[in-house]
Amino acid sequence: MIATSLLAALALGAGLAACGSGDDAGGGLAVTDAWVKATDEGMTGLFGTLVNETGEDVLVVAGTSAAAARVELHTTAMGEDGSMVMTPVEDGFTVPANGEHELAPGGDHIMLMELTAPLEPGDEVELTLETADVTTVDVVAVVRTFAGGQEEYEPADG
After folding, report:
1. CA 106 to CA 90: how far, in whole Å?
2. Where does the signal peptide begin and end (predicted)?
3. Per the confidence metrics, is the pTM higher than 0.90?
């Protein structure tokens, strides 16, 4: 099971907010209020706030997680037919110097694709984000129920 007592202790100590860790070169990047939408299969999204505590922009370019075969950076925009369409972000998310970048339903988010197990409310998911300078940031995200705009989190082409 994805949730473990160790992860629960880490999340409790962090106030159930995800936090960045790793070496100081981690770009000073942290992720606060990280959460993942509960689902039984397929794919889902990671949301929260990327926080840059340095004086230089940080570019988040990739991610990995044991909870999913693939992790991709995505954005949501209005399609030609007026529907919301998710598309991969090839250039990554820039978190401005001493600033933030929001990951939210209906906007930028991190996709967990080809899930390895159902994600139940209360579970926790570990992810590792990678920056352009090849620094990694570990994230613990709480799984929760979210009805929102009934996003399906399926790519536009399939």
Report:
1. 18
2. 1-17
3. no
Domains of the chain, CATH where assigned: 5-144 (2.60.40.1890)
What are the pLDDT digits (tens) for 72-100? 999 998 888 888 888 999 999 999 999 99
Residue 121, CA distances (Å) to 37, 65, 141, 144 in order: 8, 18, 11, 4
Q: Per-residue b/e over 8-43, b at no fewer than 16 CB within 10 Å?
A: bebbeeeebbbbbeeeeebbbbbbbbbbbbbbeeeb
Beta strand 68-78 with 136-144 is: unpaired
What pairing do the DSSP bridges indicate for beta strands 68-78 and 109-115?
A: antiparallel
Place of tokens 């926790």: 124
Judge contact between 32 and 43, C-beta under 8 A.
no
Token pair recorded at residue 129:
């984000």
CA separation for the pair 86, 89 (Å, rounded):
9
Distance, CA of 119 to CA of 41 (rounded, Å): 8
